[in-house]
Amino acid sequence: QEKSCHLSAALLGEDSEISQDQLYELLKYAALGKCHNAAQPSWCRIYHQSHLAGVVVVVLHEMSQLHFYRFYLQFKHLRKIFRHRFTLAPSANFPTSLYGEGANLKPQNSPQGVTSTSSECITKSSDLQCDPIIQRYGDKKQGLTSYTLTLKEQKENDYPIEGSPGCQGYISTECDQPRTDSSPLFGLDCEMCLTAKGNEVTRVSLVDARGQCLLNELVKPESTVLNYRTRFSGITRKMLLPVKTRLSDIQTRLKKMLPHDAVLVGHSLNSDLQALEMIHPSVIDTSLLFARNEGRRFKLKFLAKAVLGKEIQCEQKLGHDPTEDARAALELAQFFIEQGPTKVAELNLEMLLTAEKLAEVSQNNAVLQPQGCRFQEQLNEPPPLSKPCFLDCLQVTGQKPLLLGRQGLDSSGLCQSNLSTSNKQILQRALEDVPLSKFSIIQFSLDPEYLASHLHAGLYEKVRSKLTDMLTIYAGPFEENFCMKSVKKEFGRCGPIQSLTVVTETFQPYVCIQYEVLEAAQLAVESLNGAEVAGSCIKVQRPVTAAMLDCNVLIKELDLDVENEGVIYVAGLKKSLTETDLQEEFSQLKDLETLFLPKDLQSGKHRNCCFLKFQKTQSAVDALEAINGWTMKGSKLRSRNALAPGHLWRWIWQMNHNNGKQGKHIFYEKMEQLSDCEQDLRKKVKKLDHHIKKLYRSLQNNTLCVVLFPGVNSTHGSQSGLGLMGIKDDGGRSAC
């Protein structure tokens, strides 16, 4: 049974702010595993990394944490999918920090011994013994039967086998005669489209040992076609309209054409046989024949050029030619058999591949330089100390990362870059191309006018004002000579107070209390409204402003936020209690995972509240019921579900204290230009959220998805970014 990947991260308090280096650390390990010195990230853990289906990074260009919380209600799907969030330190050069300065590979960085005539490199015989081809086949020439896959190898590589699960109804070629070294070879290749059933054959090609085409037939799929994969298959809807041939017809023809001792040759032939729903006992798979370390495989296009000197799958053509691919695979097998393992190993294919990639990078840099891409200048000026880029490591493993977006993020040539003109176009390309790539970076962006610096400043002011309103409560009325000390004590049990002032403009006195955390203000509204405080029965409410009309909706959504599942807020703690004291006091609570004790970021003193994170949601519910009414060291505790743990707590504190000197309350300024476009901006954000939902739903299970609001770091000011991450599971939500 396939193991499911999952992710764990304790992102509370100071640990919830992640640097660009830490983000890079995560992406490198997710992409490469333990290869190329990649290690588990220090701040989170990926379980069963080798079972990851892929990595998808969604970048929301020039957007920050500010945008996420200003349009929190519009990001409906984004906040429901991912339960791991972190504040991201902003970077002046985000693309470089995302995949490393090593993306500036230059031709002079070529491995030792590789020159423009590297195809003539000779490997020392002492090194040959370490070559995976020699280790697998020895150094002597052998007949073709030595290179056919054993039954065990077929099982390990997902070949259809008689009686195996999932092969019910498959047709046998009935080629059951014993094979000899003179048995005939046949090259086979298929093109597939994606249908409601899965991968279905749309074209089949078969060539004989002389390379002559015996079969080149279009096939009508049985199920509704979801994606013709035209860029790769060359198949279009128009081509298949007149086709009458079905899979059963092809199966019958192949059975008749193949002699009883036929050996089929192909590149990753298991995919072709699975799509054909046919079982054949004797195969040579060129993706395995030209062996590499750690389960990696060379691409057919590279092998055809490096070994045969032939160019196939040219970009000028629409899609692959299956006859050309079948013939290339056949000739590669014939070359291997005729020349023997030693001659093949002496080609030094790994070195050739690296040289090819470096030449490609050099060429792409030369082509891209005049275009003046946005980040070109920055990427071509390597810093004194640069970290290695993991994209070139992916190249060596035969994977080319995919980059889709409107901006020139990659000037290195290490990605399959496709610039599009709209988010809709980007989404369509992503739905088509992401399933074919192991590592993808998808960049969406709002129109530039919405991200102008003066509008950004206006957004910041609005978010700060709304947060201040949500942290503020009014309580009263009180008697003329009420005891302020009693009021402060009672409301202080709900959480840390930043300011408390008396409102004198009213007939009877009221107090205005501004808290440091959202939970404290909400707890005061829920527990003290209608209570008797300082001898008066009081009403507790938040300020009434236009921006606060949706406050209850916002609080409800924060309550339901997946990030807050299993996290509770506890207030009323004595400041004399240490973290060790609290750990001991709360140790009896079942499944307690983390305790976070907020501190004043200036003085370092802890506040009179804490957050408790539990491994299971039900354990948090039980703890909430148990804690309410607890007395700890003579102090009565109050608690509720968390609204803003981790990264948001720290951000609120900073915004709150940056504004503290300006008075107890901020009123909205008139920002006409922002108000005019904000409604339109909400619609665009909502559409962006829908695009991400659609992309996420299309991902395979066990795909790591990271959504990044990179933040802003410019002359106009700095705003922290935000990261959301998770591994997709069967339920369509990110796995913990």
Descriptive account of the structure:
- The chain is an alpha/beta fold.
- Among the domains are: 6-98 and 392-408 and 419-450 and 677-728, no CATH class; 142-339, Nucleotidyltransferase, domain 5 (2-Layer Sandwich), CATH 3.30.420; 564-642, Alpha-Beta Plaits, CATH 3.30.70.
- It has 26 helices and 33 strands.
- The strands form nine sheets. Strands 2, 4, 5, 14, 15, 16, 29, 32 and 33 form a nine-stranded mixed sheet that branches. Strands 7, 8, 9, 10, 11 and 13 form a six-stranded mixed sheet that branches. It has a four-stranded antiparallel sheet with strand order 18-19-17-22.
- A hairpin with a 5-residue loop joins strand 8 and strand 9.
- Helix 13 crosses helix 14 and helix 18 runs parallel beside helix 26.
- The model is unreliable at 101-126, 366-388, 408-414 and 660-674 (pLDDT under 50).
Quick structural gist:
With 736 residues, the chain is α/β, with parallel strands linked by helices. Strands 2, 4, 5, 14, 15, 16, 29, 32 and 33 form a 9-stranded mixed beta sheet that branches. Strands 7, 8, 9, 10, 11 and 13 form a 6-stranded mixed beta sheet that branches. A 4-stranded antiparallel beta sheet has the order 18-19-17-22.
